[in-house]
Input
Amino acid sequence: MRHCLALDLKDDPALIERYEAWHAPGAVPPAVIASIRAADIRDMQIWRLGTRLFMIMETGPDFSPEAKAAADLASEDVQAWERLMWEFQQPLPDAVDDEKWLPMRRIFALDEQP
Output
């Protein structure tokens, strides 16, 4: 299953550069990568345009957003990563409370067109 999510970065070129550096190959802490894979997330990509981030996740049948959120809350390593990332991120205008990545709704699919 594909999940598409959005989030914004703070509008600061130096912060954006540091954020991208944290996402370079080998820069994300191994425990964070392990938690992603353990949740049956098969592929994850983050794309950026300006301050807008777009995440695409491909998940397997065992993926549960609720279980992933609970596991993340229980992991000291993931929580440390989330605190660090929050230094660079800011909520979307539609976010409530401390919501970060918000799910997007698909509005077009070529294979559904005549």
Q: What stands out?
A: The helical segments are 13-22, 30-38, 65-74, 76-86. The radius of gyration is 15 Å.
